[in-house]
Specification:
By secondary structure, this protein is α/β, with parallel strands linked by helices. It has a single domain, classed as Alpha-Beta Barrel (TIM Barrel), CATH 3.20.20. The protein has 15 helices and eleven strands. A seven-stranded parallel sheet has the order 1-4-5-8-9-10-11. Helix 4 runs parallel beside helix 7. The two termini are 31 Å apart. The radius of gyration is 19 Å and the shape is globular.
Amino acid sequence: MTPLQNDVFLRALLRQPVERTPVWMMRQAGRYLPEYRATRSKAGSFMQLCTNPELACEVTLQPLDRYKFDAAILFSDILTIPDAMGLGLSFAEGEGPQFEHPVRNAADVARLPIPDPEVELRYVIDAVRVIKSNLHGRVPLIGFSGSPWTLATYMVEGRSSKSFQKVKSMLFEQPQLMHQMLDKLAQSVASYLNAQIAAGADAVMVFDTWGGMLSHDDYLEFSLRYAQQVRQLLNTNRDGQQIPTILFTKGGGLWLEAMAGAGYDALGLDWQTDIANARARVGDKVALQGNMDPITLYANPNVIREKVGKILHSYGQGSGHVFNLGHGILPDINPEHVGAMVDAVHELSPQYHQ
């Protein structure tokens, strides 16, 4: 594979010395960019964009042509695995994802296959290959998946939810059935991420979007346990290159110490967690990624620069910090404000790496 021209992101994840703090952004290929909206319109729909490797590559590279990001992230969706399991994923305008065949009982769980990434998810793996080829070593490529628990919430609810009543009812009333489902999902996620690594992903991230809505004990048993199982099944050595791993639980600040023991190289932080406190709690076990409030990007560039400076100062001296938002960028953000954030990280962070 083409040697990387910029590996500061990978070095920071592995807590190796860096000359400045790397920066990328969750949902950095998204609706805030007019060029993304044009490509999505050309594709015809979100799913058609996701399933076309060339167009997925096009939108993955668009933010790198605008900003000095230190990583690209595969353009895809966290719900590709449930779709490949035959649940019938669709996206209704203004309503988010929906499944035609939600999982509600033991028979439904028994029918769930473990998808072959090179067959049912070939379009994603092909996208990784196309993107990696077209990056020409500019920056590393991040692959990703939803966590087993987060995938299960959508699969049981059948759509997005505020109360999570159906999936929590299954968890409480049929815990063994939930464990069976999560075990299948952990195997599927690990297989999927291993295929992304083999195809060229330089780092992989597990998005546990809904782990934070569980109680303390339930998070450890039904979310973190299976994120840890995924990590144990990952092959993170590709031709002698170590592939760093990131775990992000939105609302996961309560469990940082437990998360730091799950085997990942880095933990993503949402904006509700103080990064100095998080660093003190995890010590030198893991790197930290985050964690500016996405709403900050509505502010003027001077405010954005000030907030960037506060987060960098709060993390303090040394490597092990990847600057990011605490969740995905919102679709109506001014693109120039993203540039202000990236420029601020580049200009203000070197003093913390001397």
